[in-house]
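Worked Example 4.2. Consider the chain below.
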Amino acid sequence: MTLSTLPTIKKVQVLELDADDAITINGENILAFESQVSYQIDKMDSLAGAFAGGFTNVSFEGPGYVALTTHADPLVMTPPVTTDPSATVAWSGITPDVEVNKNLSDMIGQKSGERFQMNFTGENDFVVVQPNEEFA
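Applying the procedure from the previous section yields the following structure tokens:
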């Protein structure tokens, strides 16, 4: 087996949601969740959101456990923060705005979603990103 054919190994993160906890997770990163956890499947409505990966996200509400996957250890950030949609794993409470990067020099040679950005601006919330990008 050559290096280029090695499978991608992802880490599993397990979150315990209390009855009043909620989190939205990128559909590519969901591994499992307990049956008592309520969920709703959402799709990004904006054109920019569609081009940023056609995100299908799942909003979860506790109580219960949710397992998600990440490439390497995730980074948890507090808004305000701007992220690459392909590296964004999950977020609490806040709904991001997806914007097109209008700087032409930033778009030249980009193939992985950097021409789009997710902007999070919520107090007492968090955003989870991974140091690698998901590509469908």
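The two ends are 24 Å apart (CA to CA). The mean pLDDT is 81. Compare this with Example 4.1 before moving on.
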